[in-house]
Automatic annotation (TrEMBL):
NCBIfam families: ABC_phnC (TIGR02315). Keywords: ATP-binding, Cell membrane, Membrane, Nucleotide-binding, Phosphonate transport, Translocase, Transport. PANTHER family: AMINO ACID IMPORT ATP-BINDING PROTEIN, PHOSPHONATES IMPORT ATP-BINDING PROTEIN PHNC. The lineage of its organism: Bacteria, Bacillati, Bacillota, Clostridia, Eubacteriales. The gene is phnC. It comes from Anoxynatronum sibiricum. This is Phosphonate ABC transporter ATP-binding protein.
Length: 235
């Protein structure tokens, strides 16, 4: 479903964040990008959904290249993104956050001018239920714990009906207990909703416990790419 070939990315400050990256991802995979801070994980995820433009090579998702800029909106609809800092609007309720994410891809009419159609609200509530926040739909997001706020981020991604979810260090801001809960939830989403997952992590233990495949990044290079049982600590 995803095919990256010879991808290079150098930022304006001359930092070469990605060096000749080749990566193929099949439907249904749960793959982890594992690497230290600065390895290029975040850059790679951002390049895949077109948030960061690549310098050379190509990334093809479901037969569409990220180089075709005019198709980016369509591409981003099929690719959901989850962030380390959740990126939700804290003064809005859970339901409003989930609806906002969906509307962003839905119409050329500014969202502020639209009423929320009943089906949109029902679908948003279904997604909120999928992440276990059905009791909190009308609660302001800033009253939630970190783990719950990340659940809002996940519900917002799900509401898009994505084929692929990219998660950039989704548990790096969370305590160990909440981290496991979020990883369990992502595992469930991958298994039950048949949504392909590519996530970055810096914790080897979590990567080995939940990832089916581990892709090691170091200094902008892929240094290994193996199914999880074959990965040793030395990798
Ligand atoms: P532009 O010239 O397009 O504005 P910049 O290089 O100034 O791009 O950076 C864009 C964004 O990336 C800014 O928000 C900046 O803070 C952030 N940024 C810049 N350098 C780094 C870095 N080394 N690591 C992470 N983020 C960075
Ligand atoms: P990771 O997600 O593995 O921590 P990043 O992709 O954030 O790695 O960063 C890879 C390299 O690119 C680092 O050296 C980082 O400082 C640099 N970098 C990241 N974002 C920017 C940016 N916007 N502008 C300049 N340099 C950046």
């Amino acid at each position: 479903m995803l095919h990256a070939k010879g991808v290079n990315k150098t930022y304006k400050n001359k930092v070469q964040a990605l060096k000749n990256i080749d990566l193929d991802l099949c439907k249904g995979e749960f793959a982890v990008l594992l690497g230290l801070s600065g390895a290029g994980k975040s850059t790679l995820l951002r390049c895949i959904n077109g948030l960061v433009p690549i310098d050379s090579g190509d990334i093809i998702f479901e037969n569409q290249s990220v180089l075709e800029r005019n198709k980016l909106t369509r591409l981003r609809k099929d690719i959901g993104m989850i962030f380390q800092q959740f990126n939700i609007i804290k003064r809005l309720s859970v339901l409003e956050n989930v609806l906002c994410g969906r509307l962003a891809y839905n119409s050329s009419i500014p969202s502020s001018l639209r009423l929320f159609p009943k089906e949109e609200v029902e679908w948003a509530l279904t997604c909120i239920e999928k992440v276990g926040l059905e009791d909190k739909a009308l609660t302001r997001s800033d009253q939630l714990s970190g783990g719950q706020q990340q659940r809002v981020g996940i519900a917002r991604a799900l509401a898009q009906k994505p084929k692929l979810i990219l998660a950039d260090e989704p548990v790096a801001s969370l305590d160990p207990y909440s981290s496991e809960e979020i990883m369990e939830l992502l595992h469930k989403i991958n298994a039950l909703e048949n949504i392909t997952l590519l996530m970055s992590l810096h914790q080897v233990d979590l990567a080995k416990k939940y990832g089916k495949r581990i892709i090691g990044l170091k200094g902008g290079h892929i240094v290994f790419d193996q199914l999880t049982p074959e990965v040793t600590r030395d990798d």
